[in-house]
Structures are given as C-alpha cells and as structure tokens.
Amino acid sequence: MLNKKHVVLLASAGAITLSGMANVQADTLEETRSRGAVQCGVSDGLPGFSAPDDSGEWQGLDVDVCRAVAAAVLGDANAVNYVSLNAVERFTALQSGEIDVLSRNTTWTTTRDTTLGLNFTGVTFYDGIGFMINRDLGISGADELDGAAICIQSGTTTELNVADYFRANDMAFDPIVFDTSEQTVGGFQAGRCDVLTSDTSQLAALRIQLDDPDSAMILPEIISKEPLGPVVRQGDDNWLNIVKWSLFAMLNAEEYGITSENVDDMMDSENPDVARILGQDGNYGEGMGLEADWAYNIVSQVGNYGESFERNVGMDSPLQIERGVNALWNQGGFHYAPPIR
Amino acid sequence: MSVRPNARPMGHKPPFWRDRAKRALIFQVLVIAAVAAFLLYIVGNTQQNLASRGITTGFGFLDNTAGFGIVQSLIDYSSQSTYGRTFFVGLLNTLLVGGLGVLAATLIGFIVGIARLSPNWLIAKLAAAYIETFRNIPLLLQIFFWYFAVLRTLPGARDSLSFGEVFFLNVRGLYLPEPLFESGFGLIPLAFGVAIAASIALIVWNKRRHEATGKRLPAYWLSFALILGLPLLVLVASGVPITWDVPELRGFNFRGGVTVIPEFLALWLALSIYTASFIAEIVRSGIQAISHGQTEAAQALSLPRNLILRLVVIPQAMRVIIPPLTSQYLNLIKNSSLATAIGYPDLVSVFAGTTLNQTGQAIEVIAMTMAVYLSISLTVSMFMNWFNARVALVER
Q1: What are phi and psi of A6, to 5 degrees?
Q2: Predicted model pTM
Q3: Which of residues 21-50 of A touch B (CB under 8 A)?
Q4: Is Ion transport given among the entry's keywords (chain B) (predicted)?
Q5: E-only strand ranges, B246-395
Q6: What are the backbone angles phi and psi of residue B78, rounded to the nearest 5°?
Q7: What per-residue confidence (pLDDT) applies to A12?
C-alpha cells in the first residue's frame, strides 16, 4: 500500500527517469506564460505562511512571493496554481518540474543549495528553532529538557538541529517524528511528547491551533539559524532572477515607502529610486524578459514586504510576530535588498 | 525405391527460420536484448538528466553523518551515525514488527480458525464475528484506531497505569523491567543448549524405539520439561544472577527498563489482528477441505481424537493452508510500511522518509527500499515453499 507521499515520490522519480532531454534546459518563463499561471509549491497548511483561508484562497507570506512572481510575469497576482506539499515531498516536486517555485518555509542550507539541483533565491523570513512546552511542566529554559520526548516534523532541518543541540548540551531526547505539522500538534496535545519543536514562527502558528493556546508556552531560547526562502530549479538563470527580484522589489518598495495604497500616486514621484522601481525611468524588467511595470504590478496587487508581513504574520494577524530581525536594514533588521537600477 | 518429391537432399539442414527450436531461441534472444536495451536507455537517460540538473547521484551519501535522532533502535545509533546505519536501523525495526506480527497473527489466526469450527455455538459465533469485523475494516483505519483512539487516550506519565509497580502503561508507551545479567549467568544459556541437545536425542531415540518395539514415551512433554526445567534448576542453583532494572518516574518520564513505544504497539496490534482474521479463514478452509471420511476412517481405527487431528487431519490440512498463508505473511510484512502514517521508525519512515529528504537522493533511496521489500518477500516465499514441500503429501 502506498500513501500519497510515496506516490508523489515515485511519480517524480519516474519523471526524472523517463523525461527526455528536451525539457532539461527549460525556459520556465515561456512555459509559465503559455500556461497562464505560476505553479507554486506551498505547505500543507501553516497559518501566516501558506494556508487556505475561510473561502479557500491561499494566504500567507510564502503565498505572497508566488503572487508577486505571477504579478511580475503575467500581470495578475491571482494567476497561481498552488500545490500543497509536505516537507518530504517538496524538493522532489520542484526537481521533477511539477512546480516552478517552492515557497514553503524552507531553510536555506549548503546541502540543499548545492546537491539537490536547486537554487535559493533569497530570504523571506529570518527564523530560528524554538521549543513549545506545556505550562504545567514548570520549565523555564531549554537546558532543562534532558530526557524529553520531542515531536518533530519529518524531513526538516529541525530534525538535525535539535539532535545537534541536545548532543552539544549532553542531554538525551526521544524524537517522535511525524509526516505533517498537524500530526505533531496532535501528538503534543495528547501528551505523546513533552515538547513541540519547529521554527519559532511556525510554533506561533501552531500554538494558535491548539484547543487551549494559553496552556502552552514557547521557551525563550532559539537554537539555530533558519533563513527561509523561495527555491527554484538550477539551470534556468532567468527564472532565478525573476523570483529573486520579485522579492527584492517588495523589499525595495517598503524601503522607499511605496505601498499598495499609494502606488498610483507614487507614479509621479520625483524620487529617482521610486521612479526606477515603478518603471517610470528605464525598463529594469527588460533583462528578465518582463514589462517595465513588473514591479508596479507586484506592489499594486500584492503590496510591499512590510504590508505582506503585517497582514500575514505581524501584529495585524493572529500570529502577532514582532518584526524584530525581519525589519529592514535601516530599521534594525536583516532585510537588505540590492537596489533596482 | 520411391523418392518423395519435396525431400531435401541428404546432408542439407533446413534453413534456420524453418526450425521451430531455433526460431524460438532467436525470438527469446531478441526479447531479452530489447528489454536490456530499454533498461540501459532508462539508466543512461536518468543519469544524464540528473547530471544536467545538477543533482548529486551515487551511494556515497551512505557514509555521511545522518545527524538526526531515531526513537527506537535495535542497534547502537546516535545522531553521529551514518546514513548507511539509518538504513539498518529502519530495516531492523521493520523486521521486528514484521516478525512479531507474523508470530502473533499465526497464533491468533489458528486459534480463531479452529474456534470457528467449534461445536460450541457461542465460541463459533464469536470467532465468526471477529473475522467478519477485522477482515472488512481497512488496515490503515485499524492502525489509526489503535494509535489515536486507544493508546492516545491513556493517561500521562505522572498518572501511569501501574501493574504491581513493575509494569507501567501511559501515553508514552509500555514500560517493562529489563533483566540485567550478572557474572555467572553464562551457565544458563549453556544449560539451555544442553537441554535442547538432550531433547533432540530423546525424540530420535523414542522414534526408533517406537518403530522397533511399538512402545513409546511422551517424548515431547519430556523435552518440554527438560528445556524449561534444566535452565531453571541451574538458575536457582547459581543463586539467581539476575537483577531487574525496574522503570522509575524521573523528570519527564520513566527511566530505566525497556520501553515499548506506542507507535510499535499500535502497528503490531493492528497488523496482527487484521492479518489473523485472514489466517483464521485459511485455517478453517484447510481443515474443512479434508473429507470427513478421513476422520471416520481414523475413528474406525480407534485412534484417540488428538491423534486423529495430529496424524490425519492437520498434515493434510497444512497442504491446503500453507500456500495462502505465505501470501498473508508477505502482505503483513509489506503492510508494515504503513508505519509511516503514525511515525513508527520503520524502513519507509526512517530511510525512505527522513534520510531521503535530508540527502535528496530519491532514486537511490527508493531503489534500496524497494530492493529490501523484494528480498524479504522472496526469502519468506522461499522458506514457505521449502516448508510446503516438506509437509506435502508423498503420493504413492
């Protein structure tokens, strides 16, 4: 018997085995245009990053990256086909060409960037692994977790980083590994494990899914670096540029104060940076095969990075994550997008 | 002397395409060549595609450090072990649940199958109800039932169900005391070995004596007593060199002893109970396949009832039972890959799950995993075929 995971894996392996040489040096931009939609790999439901809302529309910070790409390429942020993937399926789906962009809270690591035939295009969210525990345990720090049973999602960097952390601190733990984040929450709630671990942003999202969110708390320690970002296939540099600069456009738009509200007024701006971003002074999309209004479409239809952040994960959302290190460089954060010129 | 008009001159063979045997050979060679060419093309194409997409290939990854933890391991394993070792950890976990599942399913299956033929109305109906219930519910649902509905509702570690303060059951699993062997314990396996050797000798001697004189001893009961009694005697005589490591609640959880994780319990229960319902039907059909005349003939020889079963009915029934039993064993082992649904660290979950994802070597990992299931199945199949040949009726 096969579950969905293995069907996807086998199908993808089969695709790599059988596909001819023709589509290897594929022109993803051309394929996307003829299809009329961007194939976007998202999570299996992580509020704030990628999850369907009440009306079945995908929403989230990761979803907005795909919407931005669709706006830049097709002029319509809604021209996106979403493919829900669990942690194990995600890279195979991208390698085999089932999706064009993987935007699914994926940590940028050397192994993934260099051995999977994939390229990371930037960082959408600077994250780190944390621990969520039940308040009843009476624990205040991660160094008291010796011997704990820990629920982890399979196929994540969390699996590796937690093992590193416990080994470095000479502590023991029992990894209880599930395929989906939903199952890890179930295990945590039933008491199968003492600790639920994941990126802190995900913990915030998972905590609000608990029956009684106040019964759980997130420990202050962050034990690893988890830069999350979109991923594309190697071998199509133009597509890499498009995805990379779609995110940079959102960051630059925030930096220069362009929002989805004021973007039309900004078209007349005297500021040369704003004029270049909005395609009023030269066509910076030309080198990527895009129209001059590529960044205008992104900002008007999706918004700038700050808007997307606040709407999906920030203070306007149930997750209520502080900007912190995810603020722009000139506001004490890490996000520093190269200039559009 | 008459000459057939179309006969070929002597010494001239017909052309090879007119020779049936040669023609068959040529076609077979052509088919094999076509299959081989196809496989070569597939392998070459795959390698070329992987290379052009910049995906690393080969089995070198097996020597790299895995870096993740596994909750249950029968061999030494830490996050510092290699990916190759995760393969063996997963494989052994699969074999553990498969082996214990086969044992339990056989035991339950034979009991229920025989119970279904019982003249006692209640027992027969209970057995029938068992079979019809568990045979007709999908296995995955049964695994979920045991895992989510039964084991998940157990109390937490601090309110564990305790059996004599030695066994503990909670949502984290079943905690058993572990025997720790002290020096001097080596005598006991020795005594066990001696008892087994003595039993074999006793059975062989008894059989010869029975054939020669017609007299016999209850050799099986005697051997049973010997195998159980001798090690016990040595155990007591050497002053019981065993201490028990009893699990104890410390910190989050019980420490010490042996832990049976709930994922294992759920999978093992579901696999055993599900497969047992099929085995029960196989056993029933096997016994019913033996014509009643056989039993009557044996009764006419005034054989006692247990001997009728042992000497007449069961040997013939086994012939019917074993081939479908093999399929059930194979099903059970293959179904154990559903472990991944509840997070039991079997081969599919650990190796084709975590290892695959951490390394990205999908083709290599999936190929290795499929090869393992194929080899396990072929091995079981071979053993059962050998066993079937042993018990098959010798036709005279």
Answers
A1: -75, -30
A2: 0.79
A3: 21, 24-25
A4: no
A5: 248-250, 253-255, 258-260
A6: -140, 175
A7: 57
d(CA A221, CA A275): 43
Nearest to A159 among B49, B354, B363 (CB): B354
User: Which A residues in the span 89-118 are in contact with B, Cβ-Cβ below 8 Å?
Assistant: 91-92, 95, 111-112, 115-117
Residues B25-39: tens digit of each pLDDT: 999 999 999 999 999
- Give the whole-angstrom CA distance, residue A99 versus residue A41: 6
In chain B, which among 346-365 make CB contacts under 8 A with chain A? 348-349, 352-354, 356-360, 362-363
CB B302 within 8 A of CB B345: no
Cβ-based contacts under 8 A for chains A and B: 160
Find residue B65's DSSP bridge partners.
B82
Beta strands in B112-230 (DSSP E): 161-163, 167-170, 173-176, 178-181
Of A214 and A61, the one with more pLDDT: A61
Q: Which of B354, B336, B338, B263 is nearest to B81 (CA)?
A: B354
**By the CB < 8 Å criterion, does A191 face chain B?**
yes
Contacts of B353 in chain A (CB under 8 A): 5, 88, 154-155, 177, 179
Q: How confident is the model at residue B271 (pLDDT cuts 50, 70, 90)?
A: very high
Shortest CA distance from A175: residue in chain B: B71
Burial class (CB in 10 A: 0-12, 13-18, 19+), A109: middle
pLDDT at A1: 40
Nearest CB partner across the interface for A176, out of B71, B139, B250: B71
Q: Which pairing describes strands B242-245 and B173-176: parallel, antiparallel, or unpaired?
A: unpaired
**Cα gap B258→A102, rounded to integer Å:** 43
For residue A289, name the pLDDT band (cuts at 50, 70, 90): very high
How does strand B242-245 pair with strand B248-250? unpaired
List all residues 6 or more positions away from B176 whose beta carbon is below 8 Å from its beta carbon: B167, B247, B257, B258, B259, B260
Within a 13 Å sphere around the CA of B207, how many CA atoms are in the beta-carbon half?
6
Helix (H) / strand (E) containing A148 = strand A148-153
A130 phi and psi angles, rounded to 5 deg:
-130, 180
**Cβ–Cβ < 8 Å for A156, A227:** no
Which DSSP state fits A121? Answer: -
Q: Report the C-alpha gap between A202 and B365 in whole angstroms.
A: 29
Query: Each residue of A36-75: pLDDT tens digit?
Result: 999 999 998 888 999 999 999 999 999 999 999 999 999 9
ipTM exceeding cut-off 0.95 for this assembly: no
Take residue A72 and report the two structure tokens written for it.
């830049």
* List of long-range contacts for A28-36, beta carbons under 8 Å, 24+ apart: A28/A100, A28/A232, A28/A233, A28/A236, A28/A238, A28/A239, A29/A73, A29/A238, A29/A239, A29/A242, A29/A288, A29/A289, A31/A100, A32/A73, A32/A74, A32/A100, A33/A73, A33/A74, A36/A74, A36/A79
| Amino acid letter for position B376 | I
Please check whether residue A173 is in contact with residue A145, taking contact to mean a CB–CB distance below 8 angstroms.
yes
CA neighbours closer than 13 Å in the CB half-sphere of residue A237: 1
Residues B339, A79: Cα–Cα separation, whole Å: 38
Q: How many CB atoms lie within 10 A of CB B24?
A: 10
CA distance B342 to A178: 7
Q: Decide: helix, strand or coil at residue B187.
A: helix
Give the gap in angstroms from C-alpha A291 to the nearest C-alpha of chain B.
29
Is the distance from CB of A198 to CB of A157 less than 8 angstroms? no
Which own/partner pairs from B307-312 qualify as long-range (CB within 8 Å, at least 24 positions apart)?
Answer: none
